[in-house]
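REQUEST FORM: STRUCTURE PREDICTION
Request ID: SP-0412
Submitted by: Lab K.M.
Chain count: 1
Length (residues): 92
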Amino acid sequence: MICETIRKGSECAFMTAKGCGYNGGHCYEIVEACQGCSRAVQLSTGWYCTACPEPALKWKRGNCNLATHVTNTVVTAKAKVNPLKASKRASR
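STATUS: Completed
RESULT:
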């Protein structure tokens, strides 16, 4: 439904006919770690996330999984190779 509380005119998954169904009945402003994300929009009342009603919870245990400005680096560990088995495979 269309939000009628803070993000007026935008689509909201928590909006019902009775009002906002999210905890506290309204969305929360973005935290400092959200600065630079493409999902952050400025409204007349402040900066809000278009994907999450409470961005502080997303950053509580590390990086937000919805953040567009954060890149995750995957560390691949090299497998230990047994030299004896490697030499036998090479001789085939």
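NOTES: The longest strand covers residues 40-43.
Reviewed by: T.R.
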